[in-house]
Design a protein that fits this description.
Elements: E1 2-7, H1 22-29, E2 39-44, E3 47-51, H2 58-61, E4 69-71, H3 77-80, H4 83-86, E5 94-99, E6 115-120, E7 126-128, E8 131-137, E9 145-151, E10 154-159, H5 167-174, E11 180-184, H6 199-209, E12 214-217, H7 221-227, E13 238-240, E14 246-248
Parallel strand pairs: 3-4, 4-5, 5-6, 10-11, 11-12, 12-13
Antiparallel strand pairs: 1-2, 1-14, 2-3, 7-8, 8-9, 9-10
The chain binds zinc ion (3 copies).
C-alpha cells in the first residue's frame, strides 16, 4: 500500500490569487511550494485509486487504464471539480464511491457520463480488490466520509474535510494500531472554524488517536505561512504534507 499526496491545499490553494505576501511570491516561482486541491493516490500493486478529484488535470496525469476507481470524501467543489472534465471521456466507465449526498455537485448526477457513482454508508466496509475500505462520518457542512484503508496488516486513515471527529470515529481509529493518519488541518493555531481543524485541533486528535505518524493536508494560506516561519515548530510525529509527497510507506 502506497499513499501519495497529489494536492495538499485548501480551496484557495497556494499561491493565493491576488495575494502579494512573500510566501505567495515565492510559491509563484517555485513549483515545490504550490498547493493544489487536497487529493491523494492510493496504490496497491498495480491498482490505483484516486482519493478526491479536485485536480483539474486528471486526464493529463492518468491514462484510462491506470485509474481503477475514485473515492470522494464529499461534494464540495475543491474535491470534485476535476470530474466535470473527465466525465465526458470514453471507455467502460470508472467507479466513483461517494457519500450518500442527494444533491451531489451541480449536474454531476444528472449527467454522469463515464462516472459510475456508488453511494457508501458509514461504517459499512467494502473491498476494492484485496484492499479493505471503511467509510467514517466526519464533521463538515455537508455529508462527508473519511476512509480507513487496510491491507496486509497495515492500516491508514485519510480524513478530509472535518473539524474534530465524532467520538465513535475516534474510538474506531484508536481500536487498532494506526500506521498513518492524514488529516484536514486548514488553519494555524487559535483560528476557530466550524468546518476545518486548526493546528491545535490536530495536535489534540493525534494524541487521542495515537497514530504512529500524522500528516496534515488541506493546508490553507495562513497555516502555510505559519509553517514557513522558522520560529514555529511541529513535534517529530507530525508532518506537513506537500504536493507529490509519498507519505506511506
Ligand atoms: Zn500570500
Ligand atoms: Zn469541504
Ligand atoms: Zn475542501
Amino acid at each position: 500500500m502506497r499513499l501519495t499526496l497529489l494536492g495538499t491545499g485548501d480551496a484557495g490553494g497556494m499561491p493565493l490569487f491576488g495575494c502579494h505576501c512573500p510566501r505567495c511570491a515565492t510559491a509563484r516561482t517555485d513549483p515545490a511550494l504550490r498547493r493544489r486541491s487536497a487529493s491523494a493516490l492510493l496504490s496497491v500493486a498495480d491498482r490505483h485509486y484516486l482519493i478526491d478529484a479536485g485536480l483539474t488535470d486528471i486526464e493529463e496525469r492518468f491514462g484510462d487504464s491506470d485509474l481503477h476507481a475514485i473515492l470522494l470524501t464529499h461534494f464540495h467543489v475543491d474535491h470534485v471539480q476535476g470530474l466535470f472534465h473527465i466525465r465526458w471521456g470514453r471507455g467502460d466507465g470508472i467507479p466513483v464511491y461517494c457519500p450518500n449526498d442527494t444533491n451531489g455537485c451541480a449536474d454531476l448526477f444528472k449527467h454522469p457520463g463515464v462516472l459510475q457513482f456508488n453511494r457508501l454508508h458509514k461504517y459499512e466496509s467494502f473491498y476494492l480488490d484485496d484492499l479493505k475500505i471503511t467509510p467514517l462520518p466526519l464533521i463538515h457542512s455537508r455529508p462527508t466520509l473519511g476512509y480507513v484503508f487496510e491491507h496486509e496488516r497495515q492500516r491508514i486513515a485519510y480524513l478530509v474535510d472535518t473539524r474534530g471527529l465524532p467520538p465513535k470515529v475516534e474510538d474506531f481509529l484508536a481500536s487498532e494500531p494506526l500506521d498513518l493518519l492524514v488529516i484536514d488541518t486548514s488553519f494555524p493555531p487559535g483560528v476557530d472554524n466550524t468546518n476545518h481543524n486548526n493546528l491545535d485541533d490536530t495536535l489534540a486528535l493525534q494524541q487521542r488517536i495515537g497514530a504512529s505518524r500524522t500528516v496534515m493536508t488541506h493546508i490553507g494560506h495562513d497555516l502555510d505561512t505559519w509553517l514557513s516561519d522558522d520560529n514555529n515548530h511541529l513535534p517529530d510525529t507530525l508532518l506537513a504534507g506537500h504536493d507529490g509527497g509519498i507519505v506511506f510507506p
